[in-house]
Amino acid sequence: MHADETVLRLENVQKSFGGLVVLANIDLAIDRGELVGLIGPNGAGKSTLFNVITAIYAPSRGKVWFRDSDITGAQPHRICRLGIARTFQLVRVFPTMTAHENVLVGAVYGSGGRVANASQAATEALDLVGLSARRDVRTAHLTLSDRRLLEIARAVASRPALLLLDEPMAGLNATEIKQMVDVIRRTRNDMGIAILWVEHKVDAIMKVCSRVVVLDHGEKIADGTPHEVATNRKVIEAYLGEPSS
Amino acid sequence: MSSKAGALIAAALVLALALLPFVPGAIDHYYFSLLFFVFIYAIMAQGWNLVAGYAGQISLGQHAFFALGAYTTAILWTGNYLWGSLYETHPRIYYFDPVTMVLSGLVAAVAAALIGLPLLSKLRGDYFALGTLGFGEIVRVLLINGGDFTGGAFGLVAPSGTFDTLLPHYWTGLGLTVALAIGIHLLIKSRYGLALIAVRDDEMAASSNGVNVLRTKVLAFAGGAFIAGICGSLYTYYIFHVGPDSVLNLDWMLLPLMMTVVGGTGTVLGPIIGAFVMYVIFDFARIWVPDYHPIIAGLAIILAMLFLPNGLSRLKLGILKPYSR
After folding, report:
1. How confident is the model at residue B82, as a pLDDT?
2. Does any CB of chain B come closer than 8 Å to the CB of residue A54?
3. Which residue of B has its CA nearest to A90?
4. Range A167-174 average pLDDT
5. Where do the domains of chain B lie?
């Protein structure tokens, strides 16, 4: 990949809370349209990394680049308008709005002018995740699976260049996981959006992603193809464990 | 009942209220002034509702913005420092002057924006509420120590000789109540309304989806203050004496707050219904059981909270449903 195709670049990013180092010297680049899995044990710093990228936390050290812009310390709404959208580990939809209104927020405010017709963009995003039939349902009445899909639709409606997915499969059953995998694939393939995907369902990550990054205790311990990562000794010891015979 | 039928009924009700003064003897009846006060409280409640019900920021400083509006009108009207003898020679020139009323709202809105920026960027929830309460106390001290400009602890007296009928007060109150209800209904359906609800529901999700949270909150806070300021101006044209005890009374914050909660927070009709029901209960209790009226009023609020926690306007009535958010 050429440098001009890199959408996100982290340079030596560190995040500490008091004396606790949660992220240590992370270097990472995501290219346009790439689907990258981010795995690691609980407390490895995966969600913190998302919060640093989306400026909910300012990094203690290092730089965050989006395309050619230094976005370190920018305000979260500006990050979104530039083209980085995200979902949350604990679903954060707007409970008093309908599904369509939720997605409309992303299309109207998150797109930074990239969307000409917000209502149409919202409808298309709901179509993508299969929620068109529930567009007028108040979000508080949706199932967990639907709310997770709705978060993705809302993020996609802002037409981002990069989508950060924070455990979109947490709490879902096998059928719902299959549906989620399909949605993530289509988001990348049909929309051309680069995805950085945090997940504990390692099987899904290994099957869908072309590249996997592993964090442990705030450090990047592996970055490669699913096969390279699955056979990496450090990763096996820290997270995956020995395969059962 | 369809929303169209509901709108028609509301329009008929407004028309009936607007034409009420033409009923012989209506203007001199006690209920006429009662309705004027219902409008005053409905306007105040709508202002608080915009900040707390729609933007999710509990403001305990609405009385300060009411007072700023009232004082602005009194200062512009009496014009001690501004245009000297004009007030004495033409006392009616600023009576129900729309420019004066809008300026009164603007002064309150600018004060809200100035105080809102630091408060809303740093404080949330209870802390923000206490910050706004503190702002009210700052305004009180400034007004008391404002010398001749604010009239000190006594306040300012406007030319009460201009008063000859309650009609302009009544119609202005009714007009503002209706205009605010329509305006806020349209606002909530607009792009800005989408941002307001998003911020109220989840600030982090709103900002991560491109909503400028601070700007949205400050605009709502200033908008609520503008409404309170205009209401203060209208009240000045009724009371003719603005002082810290009359227009900076905590009742101007607490009663609209209770009325909104009883009527339905975050609904367009809730503040109006709440103002009507609560003011009628308060006033009748004051007349019929003067020694116990605070108890009656308190009981009414407790019962409303126990049995109508979402407010009267969220009752399953078809007529109210389209306006219940």
Report:
1. 60
2. yes
3. B205
4. 95
5. 30-249
pLDDT at A1: 44
Domains of chain A: 3-240 (3.40.50.300)
Q: Which candidate from B195, B201, B209 shows the least CB-CB separation from A154?
A: B209
Provide the residue count of chain B. 325
Q: Which residues of A touch B210 (CB under 8 A)?
A: 77, 80-81, 105-106, 108-112, 158
- Per-residue confidence band for B314, with pLDDT thresholds at 50, 70 and 90: confident
Rounded Cα distance, A64 and A27, in Å: 10
Looking at residue A13, its amino acid is V
Confirm if B128 and B58 have CB atoms less than 8 A apart: yes
User: Is the four-CA dihedral B233, B239, B243, B245 of positive or negative sign?
Assistant: negative
Would the CB atoms of B208 and A76 count as touching at under 8 Å? yes
Per-residue pLDDT reduced to its tens digit, A8-29: 999 999 999 998 999 999 999 9
Percentage of chain A surpassing pLDDT 90?
87
> Does the CB of B196 have a partner CB in chain A at under 8 Å?
no
The length of chain A in residues reads: 245
Closest CB to B194 among A81, A104, A155: A104
A97 touches chain B (CB under 8 A): yes
pLDDT at B115: 96
From the CA of A104, how many Å to the nearest CA of chain B?
A: 8
Q: Which residues pair with A23 in a beta bridge?
A: A15
Give the pairing of strands A211-216 and A35-39.
Answer: parallel
How far is residue B311 CA from its own chain's centroid? 18
For chain B, say whether A122 makes contact (Cβ under 8 Å): no
> Closest Cα to residue B258, out of B201, B298, B205?
B298
